[in-house]
Structure formats: C-alpha cells, structure tokens
User: What shape does this take?
Amino acid sequence: MKVLARHNLSTPYISRIVKEAKSGDLLAVDKVLKDFAPEDYLQNVIKKEIGNTSNVVYVPVLEKGFGSNYLPMSFAMRLSDKLGGIYSDNLSYKPTYRRQVLNQWERMVTHREFCIRDINSLKNKKIVIVDDMYTSG
Assistant: This one.
C-alpha cells in the first residue's frame, strides 16, 4: 500500500477551507480538490502509480454515525471522472467513539473497523482506497 500525499494543510487559510469542505460546503470541496489535486498531479502522479484504470475501483472511506466527511467521496468521484475507473461507496466504518477528541497520534494508531457492503462488486478489481489525512496527519 502506498500513501500519495501532496500538501501540508496546516496554514490557517487552508485549515478553514478544508474544514468547510469536510463539512459539506460544495464550493470549498471544489476549491480543495482543484488546489490540492490539479489535473497535472492526477495525470503525472496518481495515474502513473495506478496504471491502467480499466479495472480500478475508487472507494472512499465514509463515516457512519457521528458525522460526514465529503472530501474522500468527492476526491474518489474526481479520480473516476478524470482518470477512468469506477466510483464505489462500498466501504464504511462506524467509529465507536468520537475521533474528534483524539489527538493526531491517537487517530493514526487507533484501530478502525471497516465494513464492505458488497464484496462481489470488488472481486478481481484493483482497489484504491480514498481518504483525506487532514486531521490525522
């Protein structure tokens, strides 16, 4: 598994835009995706890493329960649209606690339990799990 990171998101302006995007502000989502995943980055870094996308499924990490994060879902859709492949919302997790109260280190090392709703739809596919790492680093 590889993690493809692009930016340090710690400046106050970026922090505000990312928080707005995570909470569902669609204009902020669009700005974050265009700023942090421009077309050249998608083509030159991500497409190069993934290779042929005819058998790729982009699966965002979606929360159940305490809240939603629109960035992974929107980024997975953008990858599918720009690079080819299929978007699937087949993976979710249900936190048993409020992750927002954990510090960065605790978020990175705390076990999360995931659920795949339809395993057959992912058989024989190259799966790209899409998540943002804004609050966990």
Observations:
- The mean pLDDT is 76.
- The beta strands are 56-60, 62-63, 86-87, 91-93, 114-116, 126-130.
- DSSP finds five helices and six strands in the chain.
